[in-house]
Specification:
The chain is of the alpha+beta class. The protein has helices at about 1-25, 40-60, 60-70, 80-95, 130-135, 140-155, 155-190, 200-240, 240-255, 285-295, and strands spanning about 30-35, 35, 70-75, 105-110, 115-120, 125-130. It has a four-stranded mixed β-sheet, sandwiched between helices. The chain is elongated. The termini are far apart.
């Protein structure tokens, strides 16, 4: 537990320190001037803060996943029979999907029925499978789950998700500061300081609007995440077979209600994630809807 906490803290400190150094070196902290907002500086500031963190996390995603989930990478040269079984399926699916570089493959010990794909690019990816899934599913179901994960890689979902998250973050930061400045300026008109805004008011309003616009952004990101899950299900059905994909989702639905929370940041990447109590914030559609959509596909 302590190891995971330290890893989380170290990662975030590195991200914040890197972004702060970049924005300071470019002189972008001075977007609020005596004459009002410097919109160009503010836009660049928000773009860097909004996207840099997302991309740094993307580049570190494989390392963080291995450390946080305890993923043991399979070495093809000395793999066991079970490990070769897994490698053969993934390599075959990856070739069908047109991947030029085979992903790293690993197993993490957990009772949850799950798998996920991550990595900074199609040519530098990782597919990790839980021991619970391998012990509970048959070959056809495992193949379908892995087809789903390979589809995420082939679709470039890791990079696209990062872009979406970064853009949403940047817009949320920009809009919150514009709204905060507009209200602060309106409140300061006619005072003894010739209309100069209160920096305390501006900071408090920025904090409030950051929360508001981030929540709105989260709804948009979650909506995109649900769409990519549907698309990966379709990809898994194409690679492994529609009936196999449906059977795999049904097994996930009927399996034990266990979710490994060692790395909450990876939850959106997993094939099986409990829906939020409020659908708008759910990164995954309900499994029943996923099954129904596959059943509506032509065989």
């Amino acid at each position: 537990m302590l190891k995971r906490v330290l890893l989380f803290v170290a990662t975030n400190v590195l991200v914040i320190a890197t972004i702060s150094l970049i924005t300071s070196a470019l002189g972008l902290h001075s977007y609020l001037t005596a004459h009002g907002l410097d919109y160009k500086a503010l836009a660049i500031f928000c773009a860097i803060w909004g996207t840099a963190g997302a991309f740094i996390s993307l580049f570190m995603s494989k390392f963080v996943a291995k450390m946080a989930m305890g993923v043991v990478i399979i070495n093809p040269k000395n793999a066991t029979r079970e490990e070769h079984f897994l490698l053969d399926i993934i390599y075959d699916l990856a070739k069908k999907a047109g991947l030029k570089t085979m992903p790293e493959v690993g197993i993490y010990h957990s009772p949850e029925l799950n798998a996920f794909a991550t990595g900074p690019s199609k040519n530098n990816s990782l597919v990790a499978v839980s021991s619970g899934l391998l012990n509970s599913m048959n070959r056809d179901e495992i193949e379908a789950v892995l087809g789903h994960e390979i589809s995420h890689i082939a679709n470039g979902d890791m990079v696209t998700m990062t872009l979406v998250q970064g853009i949403i973050n940047a817009f949320a930061m920009f809009l919150s500061r514009v709204a905060a400045y507009t209200i602060s300026a309106a409140l300061s008109r006619g005072d003894e300081k010739n209309g100069e805004i209160s920096y305390i008011t501006f900071s408090l309003l920025t904090f409030v609007f950051d929360i508001f616009f981030t929540l709105l952004g989260t709804i948009l990101v979650a909506s995109y995440s649900r769409w990519r899950e549907y698309r990966a299900d379709k990809g898994g059905a194409t690679l492994a077979g529609r009936d196999k994909m449906i059977a795999a989702l049904q097994r996930l639905k009927l399996g034990p209600d266990i979710e490994d929370n060692k790395a909450p940041s990876l939850a959106a990447l997993k094939i099986n994630h409990h829906s939020s109590w409020f659908d708008l914030f759910s990164t995954h559609p309900p499994i029943d809807k996923r099954i129904a959509r596959l059943q509506s596909m032509k065989p």
